[in-house]
Amino acid sequence: MVLDVQNITKVFLGKKKTKIYANDDISFKINEGEIFGLMGHNGAGKTTLVNQIIGSTKPTSGNIFLKNENVQKSPTKARGICSVQSQSQLPLGFLTPAQAVSTMGKMRLANKEDVQKRMNYLFDALDIGQWANTEGIQLSGGIKRLTAFCMSVISPGELVILDEPTNDVDPMRRRYLWDIIRQLTKDGTSVILVTHNVLEAEKAVDRLAILHKGKFLVEGTPSQIKSSVDNKMRLEVNLINENSLNNLPEWIINKNTVGNRLIMSLDSNSVPLSIEWASEQVRQNHILDYTLSPTTLEDVYVELTSGKGE
Ligand SMILES: Nc1ncnc2c1ncn2[C@@H]1O[C@H](COP(=O)(O)OP(=O)(O)OP(=O)(O)O)[C@@H](O)[C@H]1O
């Protein structure tokens, strides 16, 4: 086991000394080669949890072990086990990606030749070699983000923590980045992916937890989490306009509107009724079209956290 988080609670003092439970009795474990997703709304407590894992914030109570080392008792040793790509953009200034990544490799005490070889591999794999010697101030947001990613994996620890690593990154290079991460996990490295991007998490992680107001609402593989809303289907319709559907049938369990898209969940035994109803709405010109499919992780995320947001 790489990481063992035991009953972590972190309380901050807010205005007028009110207690903010940023993390509230959280426990979980991560094994070698696993990709663990940490998802949650803004302010759910993800960064606070990561900061305690790398030893930069002390828990109010509970313990964290990295490769059996207690993070609070041996923070330096524990920190050597982790590599982190933080959410905020790197202020590279006049540093080029090649300078930033090789400096990080040397700081992590990797052999000079190994650093050069691995840097070439990473730049090729991400197809960013053409910017290797461009000053940071001239780089796009996506290339800066990928440079930060390379810095975190140039000499990776046994646990790599990536906070929104694909923000600003184009779809092709997102794929390349995930290929590199998969290769890392084959070599035994474990990964924590902190993200708001549910679709990406669904494809990429082995297990995930949804954090809400400091607590884990649910934890498991994407399919285990999807089965927590067992036997449900999603009916998505494109409305003609936002008022084109007034009355919804009683078999709809949940609904969520995104612009002119209405996403509804229903029990699988309501499928025949739903097809009949949706086809009628198309005929009556209330909706443009509809799609019926099994529930996605995004639906589960919305359902579990809906009405519970800040
Ligand atoms: N140093 C601090 N002092 C007081 N409150 C804090 C402190 N750091 C975090 N908090 C509070 O703890 C809660 C969790 O914050 P945290 O930054 O861990 O959330 P998050 O899930 O990482 O959010 P985001 O997705 O926006 O980065 C929030 O209510 C936040 O305001």
UniProtKB/TrEMBL annotation:
It comes from the Bacteria. SUPFAM superfamilies: P-loop containing nucleoside triphosphate hydrolases. Signal peptide: none annotated. The keyword ATP-binding applies. GO terms for molecular function: ATP binding. Residues 3-238 form the ABC transporter domain. The lineage of its organism: Bacteria, Bacillati, Bacillota, Bacilli, Bacillales. Keywords: ATP-binding, Nucleotide-binding, Transport. This is ABC transporter ATP-binding protein. Gene3D superfamilies: P-loop containing nucleotide triphosphate hydrolases.
